[in-house]
Structure prediction request, 181 residues.
Amino acid sequence: MPERAAALVAETRSVDETRGLAAALADLARPGDLVLLAGDLGAGKTAFAQGFGRGLGVTEQITSPTFTLAQEYEGRLRMHHLDVYRLDQLRDVAGLGLAELLDDGGVVLIEWGDSILPALPSDFLEVRLTFGPGDDDRHVGLRATGPSWQGRTRVLGEAVEPYVLHKGAGGADASAGGAAC
Ligand code: ADP
Ligand code: MG
Prediction:
C-alpha cells in the first residue's frame, strides 16, 4: 500500500469556484504529474479539468473526453485529459498508453481514475468531488499519495486555503458544510 497523506477538504459553491480551485492547483503542476478525478456523474470532474487547463494556460475549449477517451491540450505544460468511464476491462487501460503520456513532459488528468487504481503508478493527487447540501455546492477532497505530491503538501494547502471553511471564522458557517454527504 502506498503511504497516504492527510486529506484536505475544500468546498465550492459554484462551477466557477471549482474551476478557480483547479486553476490554483494547476500552478503547482510539474511534468509527469498524475491527477485522479473521482466522483459521481455531474459532480464536477470535467469542470475541474477545465479550470486546471485554464490554470495551465490552455486556450482551447476543454470538453468531456467520455467518448474520445483521451484529449490533449497545449499550455504551460501539455495536458492529457482522460475519462475511463467507458473502459469495460482493466486490461483495456493498457491501450491508453499511460506510461508514454506520463513521460512526455505534460500532466495527466483521469476522470474516474479511482476505478483503475491497480493499473496506475502509486504517485498521484486524488481529487474527489462530492455533492454538498445545495445544488451548486461541492466538497473537494484532495489526497496526495506518493512522494511527489506529498512533498507539495504545504503549497497544496496554501492553494486551496481560500476554499476551506474555517469553523467560527469571519461569519463562514462551517456547520452547513459539515452536513452529511
Ligand atoms: P462530471 O465530469 O463529474 O460528470 P461535469 O463537470 O461534467 O461533471 O458537470 C458538473 C455539472 O455540475 C455542471 O453542469 C456544472 O455547471 C454543475 N455544477 C454546479 N455547481 C458546481 C460546482 N460547485 N462545481 C462543479 N460543477 C458544478
Ligand atoms: Mg466528466
Summary: Confidence is low (pLDDT under 50) at residues 168-181. Residues 38 and 114 are 6 Å apart (CA to CA). The chain is about 25% helix and 20% strand. The pocket of adenosine-5'-diphosphate (ligand 1) is lined by residues 12, 14-15, 17-18, 39, 41-47, 64, 111, 136, 138 (CB under 6 Å).
